Amino acid sequence: MDVEETLSFDLVRQLREGAATVGVCWDNVDLQGLQHRPYRQDRLALAVHRDHPLAGEVSLRFDQTLEHEHVGLLPSTAVHTMLRRAAASAGKTVSYRVIVSSFDAAIRVVAAGLGISVVPVEVAATYRPVLGIKVVPLTDAWAQRRFIVCFKNFDALQPAAQRMVDYLASRAQRPSTAKS
């Protein structure tokens, strides 16, 4: 089995073309011609330095963060595109101080006090006790993300791939325990 990280819309294209067999992606893509099963959910939140003005907030809308400098992911990522669209809907733009290649790097830059970043709650919760960052949930509807396991035809998958799909789908039954 080969595991490769790619954007959701690229994964869906690869599944349709037969270049990939099974994938996990965000459910906001066009799934026409594919079968899928629920996998996981996450919620996006704002990671801030403990001394940042937004650190005391209980929750925020994304547009309330736009007057602050952000730490963002690469422009080719779905999260970057989503944030750009959300800012545009509010008639604003995101001011990026730093662009990084991963959530891990974004949180480390936040911990250094160089900006704020939109990251999954579960990822931020891992770093919160170690780096002392604050995690403020976003209340925007798009901040709740659903992921799915997708494939062309379950019955046509090799037995090992079917077992993997079943295993991943069974993980959807387990609730997240991450806390902000």
Automatic annotation (TrEMBL):
One of its GO terms (cellular component) is cytosol. InterPro entries: HTH-type_LysR_regulators (IPR050950), LysR_subst-bd (IPR005119). Residues 2-172 form the LysR substrate-binding domain. GO terms for biological process: regulation of DNA-templated transcription. Signal peptide: none annotated. Gene3D superfamilies: 3.40.190.290. CDD domains: PBP2_LTTR_like_1 (cd08421). This is LysR family transcriptional regulator.
